[in-house]
Amino acid sequence: MTEFKGFIGYEDDEFKNLWSDSIFVVDTNVLINFFKYTSSDSTNSLMKVLRYLKDSNRLWIPHQVALEYFFNYEKNMNKQMDAHSEIHQLKNNLADELKQKISKFRSDHPYISVNTNAKLDEYLSEIEKVGSNLEQTIETEVANMSNPESIHNDILSILKGIVGDPYSQNKIDTIETQGVDRYKYSIPPGFKD
């Protein structure tokens, strides 16, 4: 009753055979996500898995997946670095704005109590410490990130020789026509995809 394995489950030896003999097919997100991991350890570990599967002749990439990768990788290569730069800029903007507002406050209220002035100075000092800690965190994270060019080259190496053939334009036209009907009548696959 192999057609009902999803309902009745697999025996331990069947699971073992699945993991040792199956061919793995990844989608574009798996490839693009290599540019989004926050540590080189994660990137290297997952890249090692793909290399192992490829070397074992157990990895296959559909042509459409590779095509979508090439359409999208450049806009994803530097997202991690861009995010860290945004945090850095936000921190600087907030600190500058706070200093300006406190300076204006003191200018508008020159007779504010000594205690309040001391607390404002203490507050500014704490904000600067938090900002400094954030800078150190960002520097550490950036240093631990994988090089996007290296990731791209690794992916190119993995793709070599395992990408499927593209569909003919006639086949694509047929799929698109079927997709319109599937979407119209809410029939998966193709609906909500």
Describe the fold and architecture:
There is one protein chain. Helix 4 (40-55) runs parallel beside helix 8 and helix 6 runs antiparallel to helix 7. A two-stranded parallel sheet has the order 1-2. The protein is elongated and about 85 Å long. With 193 residues, the chain is mainly α. It contains nine helices and two strands; from the N terminus they run ααβααβααααα.
Tell me the number of strands. 2
The whole-angstrom Rg is 27 Å
Average pLDDT figure: 86
- Order of strands in the sheet with the most strands? 1-2
The major sheet is characterized as: 2 strands, parallel
| Distance, first to last CA | 30 Å
Q: Low-confidence runs (pLDDT<50, min 5 residues)?
A: none
Strand content: under 5%
Number of helices: 9
Q: Can you give the helix content as a percent range?
A: over 70%
Structural class: mainly alpha
| C-alpha geometry | elongated
Order of helices and strands: HHEHHEHHHHH
